[in-house]
# Entry
Amino acid sequence: MILLLGFFLGVIITISEPDLQVLAAQVPSVPNMVLILSVAAGVGAFLVVALLRILFGIALAPLLVVFYGGDICDRKGLFRIIFWRLHSIRVV
# Structure
């Protein structure tokens, strides 16, 4: 219940942020609501991660390794290579 409430509050607060609405208006290639909702969903998701960290007493260092490790792999294109290989495998 607390996680759902945390996600909902993160989304609502982010949607109502006036600076994000101004930023969305300045990006012509992405529809305003798509940009606002995607940022709001990300803020809500990471608020849930923060609440889980508090509830279960998870140290910050492992979370940073996981999230920064995913970012480094994505920058090097490793995720694309892995998913391309998985996608190219044909199931008979």
